[in-house]
Amino acid sequence: MNPFRTRPLRRVLIGTVATVSGVSALLALKPHTQTTVTPQAAAQPATPSATPGTAEPSSSASASASASASPGAAAVTKKITGDAIQTRYGPVQVQITLTGGKLTAVDVLQVPEDNPKDQQINDYAVPVLKQEALTAQSASVDSVSGATYTSDGYIRSLQSALDKSGN
Amino acid sequence: MGSGFFSLRATSEVACPQWGGRNTEGHTLATVHEPPRTRRPAAPAPARPRRSPAPLVLALVWAGAAAVLALWWQDTPSVVSQADWLTDGGRIAGLLSGYACAVLVALMARVPALERGVGSDRVARWHAMAGRWTVCLLVAHVVLIVWGYAVQGHSSVWEETVSIVFDYPDMLKATFGTLILFTVGIVSARAVRRRVRHETWYYLHLLTYAALFLAFFHQLSLGSEFVGNRLAQAAWYALYLGVAALVLWFRVLAPVRLNLRHRLRVAAVIPEAPGVFSVVVHGRRLGELAAESGQFLRWRFLAPGLCWTSSPYSLSAAPRPDALRITVKALGGHSAAVATLRPGTRVWAEGPYGALTAGRRSRAKVLLLAGGVGITPLRALFESLPAAPGDLTLLYRARTAQDLALRTELETIAAARGARLFYAVNGPDGARVPITAAGLRDVLPDVAAHDVYLCGPSGMAEAAYDALIAAGVPARHIHHESFEL
Questions:
Q1: Which of B26, B27, B365, B414 could tie B421 with a disulfide, CB 3.0–4.6 Å?
Q2: What residues in A contact B461, CB-CB < 8 Å?
Q3: Do the Cβ atoms of A32 and B153 come within 8 Å?
Q4: What is the pLDDT of residues B393-444, one digit of tens each?
């Protein structure tokens, strides 16, 4: 092979084909169904994208049960705060509202929102998760595609809240 | 039929070439100084040639790329939706191009192990090839990420682009950096580079340092592989800071030290042939440069108009403890201006670089095959390459007899060393004499047992390489230097 005869077109072709097939192979070899995310250790330090403004995650449950009885109604409304689940992008913590033992609302207390990507994910993922939780009346909901970590944190925080409520 | 080559044995008795010149109109010999008589270089023990670090360097680079891909692999649990395919493809492209950019800068950091070990020309070719690939990867990264985010966020590509550039942390800087890199990539394409002045191309290319600095931060703040992964962040910092340190040392501090220590100045400019000039440079303690025959330095002559460019010129004679010599053919604005240098002009040099040295040979017999301006490094090797009488041959190809620069010196050396000297010029009708395997065997029947050093314009070098292979010289015994990218 003469090193002075370079044949650039051939090199370009080989390079392109090799790169494209290599990257495609890497992507194709990954599982194509949603896998559960391995839980983060409780002692995980805060990620660099978390600004000082984010509240220090508290893993202690603050179960605040407030019974508010409306006159004449037998239903008891309870609000229970779930654990703050550390995800790699920041903590996720939800608060559930149980009315007469039924899950009637899920509110987000903490969710990663440091940069517009996080906000974008929250904008579409949180409503979906809430709707599914209310429909399923449990934490057995599917993760939202593209919001793996937020979904995982949400589901586990929701589950911990349900556990505390005794449901 | 004949091979068209003819040999000349000089009859002069001078043992060592004087650095003088005579242009072919027969003007007087201009001597710079009488060098002391030196002993003939002794016959060598054909030692094992210096091993090139090229395979090791390539292995390291590929290992780094594999590590980068492994980082992506262990960070990504699954690839589910179309958005995932796009975004993860974009992440792989981004990781690879970020890594490749660091490698590209390291290749051009003038690290001696690369410049002298692998060879400046080869390293420059690697840089050029990898550079094209990196810019393409960068395009893929931008397209895939923007598209993937748009699909995921159910917005249009345009909205997503605006959002990414203006709202995401460090992205405005990164966008600037990317635009600079695209510009550099376009200007470096062969079709464009030919039409652009070398200085313009060079100074634009220097902007890549700024581009990489600007783009670095978004990699750490937005790259999902780096979020929460202290080890990966540390490794990325180590990569970029390490490369920056290489650049700072070998491209800035080491040349400053070299020039302060050696204080190079132009001593004389000597015409050798029409349009060909030698420049003798004096300096202190040049032995500490450790320059070898066959190497080149990058010269910056501190004269008006010339100080903006640094040009590589090979040493055209074996380096002496107090003087170096280069021989320049006036081909364009810069090289023509070299002929007008005044003695006493300060010189800023960097080097020595190049791997076309005596360390690469492993056989007793050596053939030096020079074409045109390629005679320069080979003239130095002809003088100092250790070889027994009869084992060293120089074949010099040029268009006409007048173009045979440094002819007198070559003949002197040939006589002193018992080396053989052949010229090949075009026929009287202007027809070029091709270098063929048959022609080589005519002149050197045992050419297949030689180590060959080849230096010349690309057309001649390509043909000569084919001829050498056809004549039976193993490829690993052909050593060449060519700066075509």
A1: B414
A2: 4
A3: no
A4: 999 998 888 888 899 999 999 999 999 999 998 888 878 888 899 999 998 9
Locus of tokens 């589910």: B80
Domain range annotation of chain B: 54-258, 259-353
Partners of B393 in beta bridges: B367, B420
Residue bearing tokens 């230096």: B455
Give the amino acid at B42. Answer: A
Q: What is the pLDDT of residues B293-351, one digit of tens each?
A: 999 999 999 998 888 889 999 999 999 999 999 999 988 778 888 989 999 999 999 98
Pairing of strands B276-282, B264-273: antiparallel
Interchain CB distance below 8 Å, B81 and A146: yes
Of B99, B112, B71, the residue nearest B240 (C-alpha): B99
Inter-chain contact B89–A23, Cβ cutoff 8 Å?
yes
The Cα–Cα gap between B11 and B475 comes to 36
Which chain B residue has the Cα nearest residue A87?
B228
Task: Give the integer Cα–Cα distance in Å for B196 and B320.
Answer: 38
Q: Report the predicted TM-score, pTM, of the whole model to 2 decimal places.
A: 0.81
Output the six-digit token pair for B382.
Answer: 């002809």
User: B226: burial class by Cβ within 10 Å (0-12, 13-18, 19+)?
Assistant: buried
Residue owning tokens 């020309």: B121
Q: Which CATH architecture has domain B259-353?
A: Beta Barrel (2.40)
For the stretch B58-101, pLDDT in tens is: 999 999 999 999 999 998 888 888 888 999 999 999 999 999 99
Q: Kindly report the number of other CB atoms within 10 A of residue B406's CB atom.
A: 24
**CB A4 to CB B92 under 8 A?**
no
The 10 Å Cβ neighbour count of residue B445 is 9
- Eight-state DSSP code of residue A50: S
Q: Which of B180, B166, B175 is nearest to B135 (CA)?
A: B180
Asked if A21 has any chain B CB less than 8 Å from its own CB, the reply is: no
pLDDT single digits (tens) B210-244? 999 999 999 998 888 998 789 999 999 999 999 99
| Distance of residue B319 Cα from the nearest chain A Cα, in angstroms | 29
The pLDDT tens digits of the residues spanning B275-297 come to: 899 999 999 999 999 999 999 99
**Lookup: tokens for B115:** 């410049």
Return the CATH number of the domain spanning residue range A77-165: 3.90.1010.20
Q: How far does CA B305 lie from the centroid of its chain?
A: 24
CB atoms within 10 A of CB B381: 28
CA-to-CA distance for A71 and A74, rounded, in angstroms?
A: 8
Q: Does residue A56 surpass a pLDDT of 50?
A: no
